[in-house]
Amino acid sequence: MRNLTKEYRGGVKANDGISLTVDGGEVFGLFGHNGAGKTTLLNQIAGLTLPTSGSIRVDGHDPVADPATARGLCSLQPQANAPLDGITPRQAIETLARIRGARRDRARERAAELIAALELEEWADKPGDRLSGGVRRLTAFCMAAAMPGRLVMFDEPTNDVDPLRRRLLWGQIRALAGGGCAVILVTHNVIEAERGVDRLVVLDRGRVLARGTPAQLRGVHSDRLRLELVAVDEAGARRLAEDFAAGWQVAPVVSGRRVVAQIAPSAASAALGWAQGWRDSGQVDEFSVTPTSLEDVYLALVGGSGMEGAESDASLVA
Description:
Elements lengths: L1 E6 L5 E6 L8 E5 L6 H8 L7 E3 L11 H7 E4 L11 H11 L4 H14 L15 H13 L5 E5 L7 H16 L3 E6 L2 H7 L2 E6 L2 E6 L1 H6 L5 E7 L2 H15 L4 E3 L2 E6 L4 H13 L3 E8 L2 H9 L16
Parallel strand pairs: 3-7, 3-8, 5-6, 6-7
Antiparallel strand pairs: 1-2, 1-4, 8-9, 10-12, 10-13, 11-12
Helix pairs in contact: 3-4, 3-5
């Protein structure tokens, strides 16, 4: 896509001049907060939403001029679960495989493969209205992966999925890329973004703030360490944050009982002593100092660090 923009009434730009290339064989992540423009981007690639300006090519085809062909080249798991009332997961997966051109025997074979790979046999033949949210989400994933196109897109595929099957699902995502598909994946999960994708972009208010591999993005802030504390209660977390800000002149991020701050390596010893003092007083349950994570990079990009609204130097690859 080149300079892709989607503007709604009132001048709100869901996507603002986005240029990206995703290759076959890679898992490409879209990372950002709610409303950053991730789902709108997928819908334009699939030919479901018309862009205001810019261009898209899916394996050389224009989804605006030829949406039917583009949809044939794309497989999409939307953010919302597919309606499964009255049918079973096995029936839903087989039906989508048939719609995408599989013969009946191949559709059955592929459904069985995915059900086994994700350990869904217990629920495969139960009516959809009796399934948990996680099983419905996994079924929607299988529907998109049953007969994948050249480009496969997953919009938050691991939502509501238990840890065991989340790991199995990621194995299937990597298998799709290993088979030559280009995979685009939307996630809010920092650990998934760090461990599961080959490259990613950070989106905010429809614009690309940074892009690169997870290691490249972390490298931009490699001169910092992450200090994390878990207070005994939320009031204690606020007291910790105020005390840290007073001593280090840096405002940490507070989320519930968790307090996260960026420190220089030279300050690590003093910060650990400060944290240990709070723990000795009984106001901190645990604390740690670790290298910078992708979450820290994201917070720096969108949290008023001066980089908001412009692409950062983490843009190391096209």
